Amino acid sequence: MSTYLPTLKQLQYLVALKEHGHFGKAAEASFVTQSTLSAGVRELETLLGLTLVERTRRVVRFTALGDRIVEKAHRILREAEELAEMARSAGTPLADDLRMSVIPTIAPFLLPKLLPRLRKLYPDLKLYLREETSAVAVEALHHGQVDCVLLALPFAAGDVESAAICEDGLYVAMPKGEPDNPPATISPDLIDESRLLLLVDGHCLKDHALAACNRPELRANASMMGTSLYTLIQMVDNGLGLTLIPQMAVDAGLLKGTEVVARPLNADHASRQIALIWRTNSPRREEFEMLAAAMRELQAE
């Protein structure tokens, strides 16, 4: 076995450089100087006897082997973090740092209600939040950049475990007066595909809404232009069309100050499941299950 092995710090620098594609930005994200990060990557290349990164004035380009080593580095760093987590979890549960990603169609509506009460339940828990779309959040989870993700299922998240929080119904949001007397619930066949506004690609709510409607022509004809639910509601309020929003957004007052009318979607599976997910076999599984149980109880109240 070789006496000289890559250090975790060298691998962290390499991963940061791959993520940011720029020495300066990678150094800033790693809280070191650019020269320190550059020297660390160079030392790693010398140690391995390989060129991992092609450097030019404008471009940082990884070699094919460099990309493969980055993937291996992700796994090594994740295992090292899990080793530290194993030691931490042996103490008092939910009394340390926890990094959680939350998707944008949940974060502004659920967290303001839950976080103050979580702080009372677990005063020593330091919960660091990242708001990002499901695909980005799941990738961060598998790369060890976050510990768990609060998102909506179904979603293809790979090798993870999950704990359900609550069911979140889907509503149809319409301009006031369109139609004059909207029914108590809206069936998918009443939705005008030429007027439907949806979130842009990357937001799983769009896929959940289209799946619940089960009308292929909606996917083909809907306008995918909203970058947030707030943006969509403003467009609906200005008479530009209708959209689909989650019940938690309605309950949180998303429609306040508008003349938008919302009615429950009357369809099979007209809801999404809010869940907490984490990496399979995580040493903090018990903590995540405790956190999910607390969220479930607080949400039920």
Automatic annotation (TrEMBL):
Protein name in UniProt: Hydrogen peroxide-inducible genes activator
Native source species: Sphingorhabdus arenilitoris
Residue ranges constituting the HTH lysR-type domain according to the UniProt record: 6-63
Database matches in PROSITE patterns: HTH_LYSR
Top-rank taxon: Bacteria
InterPro entries: LysR_HTH_N, LysR_subst-bd, WH-like_DNA-bd_sf, WH_DNA-bd_sf
Keywords, comma-separated and alphabetical: DNA-binding, Transcription, Transcription regulation
Similarity-based family: Belongs to the LysR transcriptional regulatory family.
Keyword Transcription regulation listed: yes
PANTHER family named among the record's database cross-references: TRANSCRIPTIONAL DUAL REGULATOR HCAR-RELATED, TRANSCRIPTIONAL REGULATOR OF OXIDATIVE STRESS OXYR
Cleaved signal peptide residues: none
Keyword Transcription regulation: yes
